[in-house]
Amino acid sequence: MGILNEKDFIEIIPSLSEKAFKPGERAEADILDSHDFRYVESGEFKANLHVHTKYSDGTAEVEELLNCGEKIGKKSNGFILAITDHDTIDGIQEAYEIYNKKSFPHLDLCLGLEISTVGVDFPNQKKPVPIHLLVYGLNPYDEKLIEFLNDKRNKKLALAKETINELNKSLPYNFTLEEAAKVHGMVAKGQDEVAHPMKKYTSGKILLSHYFPNADFSYEKPVKAFKYLFKSGEPYHKIYKKALEKYTGCELPDIPDEIEKQIQKAREIYLKAHPTVGNKIDGFAYFDETVEFITTLESGVMSVAHPARSKAYTDEFYTYLFEHFKQYGKDKALFYEGYYRSYEGEYPARWLEKIDAAAQKFNLLKTGGLDSHGKDVITRCPYS
To answer: Is 24 in contact with 40 (CB distance < 8 Å)?
Structure first.
């Protein structure tokens, strides 16, 4: 057992079956952490290649995850853990140091990264598409990579602060970046896009201030208590009102026009902080450019993360996506997360066969991961 480099990763991962990426079977298809642990107990659960720590949007300490992986490895005669924090390698630097100081005889460690990119260069595209890129087998002290990530992070953080200032100039609320981070902690680190967290923050703060001006709880509490509500396609502020009703046990009157206008004004402001097709904003990582950049590093192979979450705007989207992946990633663009375990709802299921078919056109190999954010290497939801 040891730290897997890119050559090790390329040799080992294709030999793993689908079951190797599953701790068990879900009791209910749309409840993420409802799985049993039959494959953990049987020793068939062999790898989780998508895990987050406290350095991005996870809740676990790095050493906790290493210890958990080692414990599973004892049952399975070896376990592979890939740490893949969003837009930072601070976690894998700590993992590297701990792994080399302590004994983990049943654990292979893969030093990885999940880069949040935006696709804006595909054929017939009208809206930007979020695409996450997983990189495996990295050197955690690669200066070129550190410079790239720091540059993106600093510029996004500046953009987030500028957006907060604009919100405060236009609306009668005391918006702060620290408060925005209560739902999306990464926005205060420059590790997240700006518009999406601000949508959640402004909607929640405005509605909570309107309905409960003297509330003894903050805006994120209903979100965390009723996460499942936010999977619908309704406007976010409409869903937040429902969550607020459930959280307080009160039936609330309709949202007044004045408050609707404030929410829309906030939307106008934070959308200026998001790139569009034809208008790239400095600080964002764009898919084609980022894939090409990874090929210039001394080590690291790539996988497209949870492709069905990059919602298709046409039936040909995944062909476009993987074509660009191979074109710009060359021999470093080898995998896609075909055994992703955190899909829910009907949308992904409709696209999985098309994703597999498109990946086969470009000879991409399947990886798998749970996208774990919780207290161990299995738990998906960060607040459980």
So the answer is: yes
How far is the C-alpha of 79 from the C-alpha of 46, rounded, in Å? 5
Angle between helices 90-101 and 62-76 in degrees, nearest 10: 60
Residues listed for the chain: 384
- pLDDT tens digits along 80-106: 999 999 999 999 999 999 999 999 999
Enter the tokens of residue 383: 């607040």
Token pair in block for residue 177: 């970046």
| C-alpha dihedral sign at 370, 373, 379, 384 | negative
Cα distance between residue 380 and residue 222, in whole Å:
19
* Non-local CB neighbours of 193 within 8 Å, separated by 6+ positions: 116, 118, 130, 156, 274, 284
The neighbouring-strand residues paired with 175 are none
Hey, what long-range contacts does 256-260 have (CB within 8 A, 24 or more apart)? 256/210, 259/206, 259/207, 259/210
How large a percentage of the chain has pLDDT more than 90? 84
CATH topology of domain 3-142+297-369: TIM Barrel (3.20.20)
pLDDT of residue 31: 75
Q: Residue ranges of the domains in the chain? A: 3-142+297-369, 151-271
Q: Which of 204, 168, 198 is nearest to 184 (CA)?
A: 198
The tokens for 274 are 């998001």
Give me the chain's average pLDDT, please.
94
Average pLDDT over residues 40-48: 95
In angstroms and rounded to an integer, the radius of gyration of the C-alpha atoms of the chain is 21
Helices (H), the chain: 6-12, 38-42, 62-76, 90-101, 143-170, 177-180, 195-211, 220-225, 236-248, 257-271, 287-294, 317-329, 346-361
Instruction: Give per-residue burial for 228-242: e unless 16+ CB within 10 Å, then b.
Output: eeeeeeeebbebbbb
CA gap 259, 325 in Å, rounded: 43
Which of 219, 211, 220, 202 has the alpha carbon at shortest distance from 267? 202
